[in-house]
Amino acid sequence: AAVGLTEGIDRAGLLGLSYTAARFPEDVRADSRRALTTHPGVVLLPTTFRVVERKEGTWSMVTGQYSTPQGARRALVHHLTRPVPQLPDLPDMPELPAWMKVDEKEAALHARAAKKFTARRRPNELVLRGRRFEVIRVERVMRIGPDGPEKSRPSDVDDY
Q1: Model pTM?
Q2: How confident is the model over 51-72, as pLDDT tens digits?
Q3: How far apart, in whole angstroms, are the C-alpha atoms of residue 147 and residue 144?
Q4: Short name of one Pfam family for this protein (predicted)?
Q5: Domain boundaries, the chain
């Protein structure tokens, strides 16, 4: 399909990318290398936004993907202000597991941080007790080959 100059440059830069870092299992890296020849083309998908938590030397995803930065910001506020709900007393569970308990002081701190975050104009970063949350832009691609879009790879994990 015809594309503009900028998209063409972006796509050309993505053609040869594959998973190479040692943190990816060998079967994932092998499938990724194989896809360069079986599905050599790329199609840019719409950009999405999500919140990640930056950690020393790495990061982890906090929210799902949203079509706008504002959607990701709302998700961060929800993450901070909607702690895991308290369950009613259950016969087999006389006490909630520690991970389900809500610390009221911590919840109040999160609520104040969320309020300050939403008061700012287009905030993209929040630091809370040394934890750094950022709204990030996610560029997505789909590999395509002679038989159409790439299907799932043997190394793709599906726990369900």
Answers
A1: 0.74
A2: 999 998 888 999 999 999 999 9
A3: 8
A4: DUF5954
A5: 5-149
> Distance between CA 99 and CA 86 in Å, rounded?
11
> At residue 97, what is the residue type?
P
- Cα 93 to its chain centre, rounded Å, is 33
Dist CA 81 CA 126 (whole Å): 14
Rounded Cα gap, residues 59 and 55, in angstroms: 5
Length of the chain: 160
41 beta partners = 144
pLDDT tens-place string over residues 7-62: 778 778 888 889 999 989 999 999 999 999 999 999 889 999 999 999 988 889 99
Look up residue 6 and give its amino acid: T
Return the HEC string of 11-62.
HHHHCCCCCCCCCCCHHHHHHHHHHHHHCCEEEEEEEEEEEEEEECCEEEEC
Question: What values do phi and psi take at 79, rounded to 5?
Answer: -60, -40
Q: Hey, what amino acid is at 18? A: S
Distance, CA of 67 to CA of 48 (rounded, Å):
5
What average pLDDT does the structure give for the chain? 88
